[in-house]
Design a protein that fits this description.
One of its GO terms (biological process) is positive regulation of macroautophagy. Pfam families: WD40 (PF00400). By secondary structure, the chain is an alpha+beta fold. It has a five-stranded antiparallel sheet, with no helix packed on it. Strands 23-24-25-26-30 form a five-stranded antiparallel sheet. Strands 3-4-5-6 form a four-stranded antiparallel sheet, with no helix packed on it. The radius of gyration is 36 Å and the shape is elongated. Helix 6 runs antiparallel to helix 7 and helix 6 packs parallel to helix 9 (about 520-530). Helix content is about 15%, strand content about 35%.
């Protein structure tokens, strides 16, 4: 048994149970717990020993001597329910017959057994106010109300039958209006609401989107009914108005879960929070705020295998759960993983054509304005983590609508990107594809020239394509001899090398007097002078890309260098000798180092605007700043909400 000695209201403790445990039930005084299933039937107490709460097994019914008149199926409970007014009385039903068994938790024996249904009973529930009444739901197509004060054989006073004659899968009595109960009928796309005083037909039915597996009335909002679907495409929790007569109503709230919902349970201390687990292979119990339906508020991650059942302790934030890992765990919600602490506020992506997409929450919405108007948070606060935190949502109870999911999508792209026919013609005239020579040297020449042309025409994606082709197919053994020869005559000094230059193809060549120009040299000169762009924007671009007064020199032996920083346009190399001379390479300064600190800080900020605009930094606080110095970027801002569909991404890559 493991336990943690912390605040008693937030205690985490656990113990092992027998395999096959699939249902839990807690008595009205919160000190007795049944853990049962097809292969298990155990009674536990929850005791405080040395100010530490823990589970203690009181009795194992399956391994104890059995009463002669009791069938062995009585020790394979499918469902358990405690009497809400008697802490020592509980009822069970078998998973193989229609018998109902009444137990005494003090004497640990059955005090009554009743043959109520013709086949298995799926669910049973004691009446919240009348301890002598119990409601059952069976696969034989009937729900029956039992009064233990009656002296007849089966003690049934009322029977309910749906017009479809299908079996009852689940029932739940409304705790505030105890004359009403909701039911789940097999293979039906509706939830009938019954009045126990009029058993002939339901009061009305709520038409759902898909088949329903489980239901739960809200204990705070007395007519909110939650349903969990099991259809092939229905992975939602829907909240309905259970007091109206509109069978075709739209749900009040819709929560999008991770799988088909198996069980629902409302959080006792917050009317907007509901917990569930799903049929998928997910060992977590998720707590959702129905007003923020796309992300769980918290997730209990204490189990190592699928969840079988769970329940909330009354008037607390503690959950008791059991899983297929054969562990019974008691945990406080403070031990659950809070989504707000692990989910990124921003999202960023880069396309192959150089466009950058950044999304961030839009705080200009009705929910945030209502927070300010009600003075729930200070007007000066704009921290996103505070606006949408669990504490804020749990205490701001006046907001009873869905928080609409809206985001700002920022796009910035290269303003000089041109897909015109003229650009296509320039590529067609200036690119070369060889004269039939299939040697690696000829291929290297083709890649070098076409890469230079692509760079001149401002297409870095095509330039990178030619460089990759060269890397994949050129024989590096021939180039290695050139590196070895050149490294003997070069000095290891700190230099700045343009990122677009490759080891075997440098953009800056100096002609030696007396040396005859080769065919390659002539071709390179012709391509550099052919169709030069002379407009003012082209000149400004070149001035930005080539740093003034920069000293450029070839690097032939890159193995003796280490990379310090990678910027947008340059790579700065440092020799081992420089590290020894300066001590710490991170403290070294360079003439060509343009605003490194600003660039690093800006990596975590959405760099998408050329005009001052309220944005959010990593702490969630809004600031204003301008990015006018980034002149090669086109700003576009789009407001997205959960009802809009994204257009084709090529529309933003123009």
């Amino acid at each position: 048994m493991s336990k943690t000695n912390i605040n008693q209201h937030e205690t985490i403790f656990s113990c092992f149970v027998r395999a096959g445990t699939s249902t839990l039930a807690l008595n009205c005084t919160n000190n007795r717990l049944i853990a049962a299933g097809q292969q298990n039937f155990q009674l536990f107490s929850i005791e405080s020993i040395d100010n530490i709460e823990q589970f203690k097994e009181i009795h194992d019914f399956r391994n104890a001597p059995r009463q002669p008149a009791i069938s062995r199926y009585a020790f394979q409970p499918k469902d358990v329910s405690w009497n809400p007014n008697d802490e020592n009385c509980f009822a069970t039903v078998s998973g193989t017959s229609g018998y109902l068994y009444i137990w005494d938790a003090t004497r640990l024996i059955t005090i009554d057994q009743l043959n109520i249904h013709n086949t298995i009973i799926n669910r049973l529930q004691f009446h919240p106010k009348h301890p002598n009444l119990l409601l059952t739901a069976s696969q034989d197509g009937y729900a029956k109300l039992i009064d233990f004060r009656i002296n007849n054989v089966d003690k049934v006073i009322t029977s309910f039958r749906h017009s479809s004659k299908e079996g009852f899968r689940d029932i739940d009595i409304n705790i505030s209006n105890t004359h009403k109960f909701a039911s789940v009928i097999n293979d039906q796309y509706s939830v009938p609401i019954w009045d126990i005083r009029q058993p002939t037909q339901p009061d009305f039915s709520i038409v759902t989107r898909d088949k329903v597996l489980c239901i739960a009335w809200n204990p705070h909002e007395h007519f909110w009914l939650a349903t969990g679907g099991i259809g092939g495409h229905d992975r939602t929790i829907r909240i309905w108005d259970g007091k109206g007569n509109d069978s075709r109503q739209e749900p009040l709230f819709t929560v999008y879960t991770f799988g088909q919902v198996t069980k629902l349970s409302w959080r006792p201390t917050c009317r907007y929070h509901i917990a569930c687990f799903t049929r998928t292979a997910d060992p977590r119990i998720h707590v959702w705020d129905i007003r923020r339906p796309y992300l769980p508020q918290a997730s209990f991650c204490h189990h190592r295998n699928d969840i079988e059942d769970f329940l909330w302790r009354p008037n607390s934030d503690n959950i008791i759960s059991v899983g297929r890992d054969e562990r019974l765990i008691h945990a406080h919600i403070s031990s659950a993983v809070q989504s707000e602490q692990i989910v990124s506020i921003f999202s960023l992506n880069v396309t192959s054509k150089g466009s950058i997409y950044i999304s961030m929450p839009n705080i200009d919405n009705d929910y945030v304005r209502s927070l300010y108007n009600e003075q729930h948070i200070p007007l000066s606060s704009s921290n996103l983590r505070i606006l949408y935190s669990q504490e804020t949502l749990s205490t701001f109870l006046k907001w009873d609508k869905i928080i609409k999911g809206e985001s700002i999508l920022g796009i910035y792209s290269n303003t000089l990107h041109d897909n015109s026919i003229q650009l296509f013609h320039q590529f067609a005239r200036r690119w070369i594809f060889g004269n039939g020579d299939k040697s690696l040297i000829a291929l290297a020449n083709i890649c070098d020239i076409n890469s230079t042309v692509s760079e001149d025409l401002n297409r870095p994606d095509l330039k990178a394509t030619w460089q990759v082709i060269k890397m994949l197919y050129v024989d590096y053994d021939a180039l290695q001899n050139y590196r070895t020869y050149s490294s003997k005559t070069s000095q290891s000094i700190t230099i700045s090398h343009h990122i677009s230059d490759s080891i075997s193809n440098h953009r800056y060549h100096y002609h030696q007097p007396g040396r005859k120009l080769t065919i390659i040299d002539k071709q390179r000169q012709d391509n550099r002078s052919y169709d030069e762009l002379t407009d003012e924007k082209r000149i400004q671009l070149q001035e930005q890309r080539i740093l003034t007064n920069s000293k450029l020199e070839m690097i032939d032996d890159t193995e003796t260098y280490i990379v310090r920083d990678v910027l947008t346009d340059d790579i700065i190399f440092i020799t081992p000798e420089d590290v020894l001379n300066y001590g710490n390479a991170n403290d070294m300064s360079y003439d060509n180092d343009i605003d490194l600190g600003l660039r690093r800080d800006s990596l975590s900020i959405p760099l998408i605007f050329n005009e001052p605009l309220p944005l959010t930094n990593t702490d969630g606080d809004c600031n204003k700043f301008s990015l006018n110095r980034i002149t090669r970027q086109l700003t576009e801002v789009i407001i997205l909400d959960d009802d809009d569909e994204m257009r084709h991404e090529n529309e933003y890559d123009r």
